[in-house]
Specification:
The protein has 489 residues and is mainly α. It is built from 18 helices and no strands.
Length: 489
């Protein structure tokens, strides 16, 4: 776990810095500088782009990670890199033609409830293509064990540039409409910078060649497209559904709540950047015991770190919402529901990486498609009745069922088990601390109350997890850090 902990730690720090910048944007700058309508509009455009991104990438970011280590010669690897970078271009052309042919019909459908969307429809595929090629070149860097820079661009760079754009909006350097176009330009810049970084790590030798195992590559790619579409629809599909049933401002209220909850998944996002290629290598070499050990370690490490983040959010949620405009306050229940779904997905460790690298991945993807249908149906039922609360409940139910199905699949088919007795101890410890601190109100200004409560939670949580030896890996990190400053627990 050495390289995993090293790069995961760096990625986690980078990702949390990014989320801190994003929190400033989400909780203050977007609602105040941009307003609910254009905040919701920007969020809708990027969410829609994220949903269609797998079609443009055609799964090549995952295909690259899975197959790259299987090629034995440098020439074969160069040919494969060329294929993964050039082939999506061929797929973008027919998709663009189909999109242009049905453009009026698609525009009329998505702007039926909110006409403001109509003017910016072309930005959705543009940002989607930028996202797709960012992921491909990020994977290019990751297979060479360089995950930190791409993570910095994704988590910090995008948000920092958005902050600059918001400041420009505040000083009237740009208008509200121009801000939306600047957002698209930011995604284009991120793609270009990541591409040049990938070329710096491994200089391209582009060749118009087809890999010898093209049948296996394309079959895997097809299912990864389905998988990526499933994952992104579960992540952003609710915002697209809200646009069809409610005024667009509700997307802004929902986005603030989901952003707060998504902070829980940050440790998972950081660790997976480096764990995914290691998982692919272990599976390719049939090292079952090492894979099972990695599965357990990623599960408990993510549960411990993610549980801490969730605990800090949940016990401070009332004070957090006092910092945003009052019209956003209806999202507190959304934070709890989305947060719990992310926590359950978090404790599955590198479950996704295992599934995507096994011959059984087809059935799980079909199940994922069924759950997307379920999500859409549940949203259609609950949004008209309960609004954003109904959408959050639909997401909670869908993601929980999907995560449970993936867990059972890995246990039954591959005989890999992520949970240990420490899993139960960690969950009970987190719940106990929640009961202690949630109802304890500090009579201070919100930020001071949040800081004081978070400090107390941190001290108790870290100390108790350390004493109960929930995660040996994290205990070693704590021992190392304390040893450097001469403290021994």
């Amino acid at each position: 776990m050495g390289i995993v902990l090293n790069q995961s730690f760096k990625n986690t720090i980078i990702t949390y810095i990014g989320f801190a910048i994003g929190a400033i944007n989400t909780l203050y700058l977007y609602p105040v500088f941009l307003g609910a309508t254009y905040y919701a509009l920007t969020n809708y455009i990027t969410s829609a782009a994220n949903v269609i991104m797998p079609l443009f990438a055609i799964g090549m970011q995952n295909t690259l990670v899975k197959f790259y280590s299987q090629y034995k010669t440098e020439e074969e690897r160069e040919q494969f890199l060329s294929f993964t970078a050039l082939f999506p271009i061929l797929m973008c052309i027919p998709l663009g033609i189909i999109g242009l042919f049905f453009f009026d019909d698609i525009t009329a459908f998505v702007s039926k409830e909110n006409p403001v969307v109509k003017e910016f429809m072309l930005l959705i595929p543009f940002i989607g293509i930028c996202m797709a090629y960012f992921e491909i070149f990020y994977a290019w860097a990751r297979v060479h064990m360089h995950s930190v820079f791409g993570n910095f661009i994704k988590e910090v760079g995008l948000r920092l540039l958005s902050t600059v754009a918001l400041i420009g909006l505040y000083f009237k350097w740009i208008s509200l409409v121009e801000f939306v176009y600047v957002t698209a330009a930011i995604y284009f810049l991120a793609f270009m910078v990541t591409m040049f970084y990938a070329f710096y790590i491994k200089r391209p030798n582009f060749q118009i060649t087809i890999p010898e195992n093209v049948k296996a590559v394309m079959e895997y790619t097809f299912y990864i497209i389905l998988s990526g579409s499933v994952a992104n629809l579960l992540l952003d599909g609710d915002k697209l559904m809200l646009n069809q049933y409610m005024k667009i401002e509700n997307i802004a209220y929902y986005s603030v709540a989901t952003y707060i909850a998504l902070v829980i998944s940050v440790p998972s996002r950081a660790m997976h950047q480096i764990v995914y290629p290691i998982t692919a290598k272990l599976m390719h070499e049939n090292k079952h015991d090492e894979l099972n050990s990695l599965y357990k370690k990623t599960s408990i490490n993510l549960q411990m770190v993610g549980g801490f983040v969730m605990l800090c959010i949940f016990v401070n949620i009332s004070q957090l919402y006092e910092l945003v405009p009052k019209e956003y306050s209806g999202g507190i229940a959304v934070v709890f529901m989305i947060g719990l779904s992310k926590y359950f997905d978090l404790i599955l460790g590198n479950n996704n990486a295992i599934i995507f690298n096994t011959k059984y991945y087809r059935m799980v993807l079909y199940l994922g498609l069924m759950l997307v249908v379920l999500t859409i149906v549940l949203n259609m039922i609950f949004i008209p009745i309960f609004g954003i609360f109904g959408s959050a409940f639909a997401t909670l139910l869908s993601i929980t069922l999907y995560s449970l199905a993936k867990l059972l699949f890995v246990v039954k088919k591959l005989h890999l088990y992520p949970f240990t007795k420490e899993t139960i101890y960690s969950a009970l410890l987190t719940f106990a601390l929640f009961l202690v601190f949630y109802f304890w109100e500090f009579p201070f200004f919100q930020l001071i109350s949040i800081a004081l409560k978070s400090i107390l939670v941190t001290i108790l949580y870290v100390y108790l997890n350390y004493k109960f030896k929930i995660s040996p890996d994290i205990n070693k990190v704590i021992d190392s850090l304390l040893g450097k400053i001469g403290i021994k627990i």
